[in-house]
Amino acid sequence: MLTANAEQLSLGPADDIRVGTSQVFFVEGREISVFRREQNWFAIDNHCPHSGASLAAGKCGESVVTCGWHHWQFDLRTGEAIGRPGFKVGTHMLEVRDGELWITLSSEPEIIHQHEVAADSGTPANAVDEAVDWREASRCLVRYGAMTWTGYFRYRSNEPLECRHGERVLIETPRGIEVGEVLSSLTTDPPRNDVGKVIKPTGELLRKLTSMESFEHVRRQRDARLQSVVQELLAECSRRIAERGIAVDVVDGELLFHGKTLVLYFLGTPTDDLGVLASELSQGREFNVIFNSVLEVAAPVASCGCSGGGCSAK
Fold first, then answer.
1. In this structure, are residues 85 and 75 in contact, taking their beta carbons and an 8 Å threshold?
2. Stronger pLDDT, 32 or 49, i.e. the higher one
3. Residue 292, exposed/middle/buried by CB under 10 A (0-12, 13-18, 19+)?
4. DSSP calls for 167-190
């Protein structure tokens, strides 16, 4: 039974969790995965933000856990999804005192997953997803990024917006502000995959690009100086990856619309080494460097039911 001590809660005897194993606890209505490694203890919210799988059931290394459903990886120290900017799980402090394990819950809000909300409310899962993600919103299919991903973007402004096929628009993704190309008209019907599940928004549709913004965007893409910067960074990144023996291949780079983020696309399994490398490459530069898996398709509509990126189910 959980017992409280000031702001801490006791999870019971620490020896109940063997080294190299994990255990799930329900703490004040929150589902927590506790991992005991050789040198450290970690506590994170149990459900993967991609599709809700239990992270306690995943494969755990010394400081990284891999979701068993679609192989998303999370840094147990920070909760961040490795190679997938903008996605994370909550982390919590653990302390072993007099043989007892104590937890201090984070103030970070817990991500509520579709199946959890549905179970509490008795409302069908699809209806809950639709109400949460597409309430008072229109949706539009947009192509974006150097990998030409497609995703359904949500438009929630009260200002009327008419989009024609091929028009450029400003969108917001977990990576930042980007330029996209419209592939469908706006509609209020929530998008569904081929098994009827509501597809969650890939991001927000902000507005159409002005003529001047479109011109400047094309000019920047062709700018020799910027292309040189990207190529130099790709070369430096590849050299450091080879020196450290990181098992990924960096294949392309892209500076986003706002100029504050440079995305390096890679093939291979995300590791926490990429997070360290991204921080190093960002130092002394005018933009932040992030890594993005080439396979992180934004809004698949396959029968696997995925609504986010990174699915490896075929």
1. no
2. 32
3. buried
4. -EEEEEETTEEEEEEE-S--BSSP
Q: 59-68, long-range: CB within 8 Å, 24+ apart, which pairs?
A: 60/20, 60/22, 60/35, 62/37, 62/38, 63/37, 63/272, 64/271, 64/272, 65/33, 65/35
Q: Identify the band that residue 53 occupies on the pLDDT scale cut at 50, 70 and 90.
A: confident
CATH number of 3-104: 2.102.10.10
How far out from the chain centre does Cα 153 lie? 16
Encoded amino acid at 53, one letter: A
| Cross-strand partners of 67 | none
Non-local CB neighbours of 28 within 8 Å, separated by 6+ positions: 9, 105
Residue 313 has pLDDT above 70, yes or no: no
Alpha helices in 103-208 (DSSP H): 114-121, 125-134
Answer whether 0.85 is exceeded by the pTM. no
Asked whether 145 and 213 are in contact (CB, 8 A), the reply is no
Identity at 218, one-letter amino acid code: V
HSE-up of residue 214 (Cα within 13 Å, Cβ side): 11
Going across the sheet that includes 288-293, the strands are: 248-255, 261-268, 288-293
Both structure tokens of 210: 């002005």
**Whole-number Å distance between alpha carbons of 134 and 153:** 10
**Residues 197, 201, 205, 206, CA torsion sign:** positive
DSSP summary character for residue 199: P
Q: Under a CB-based contact definition with an 8 Å cutoff, are residues 94 and 101 in contact?
A: yes
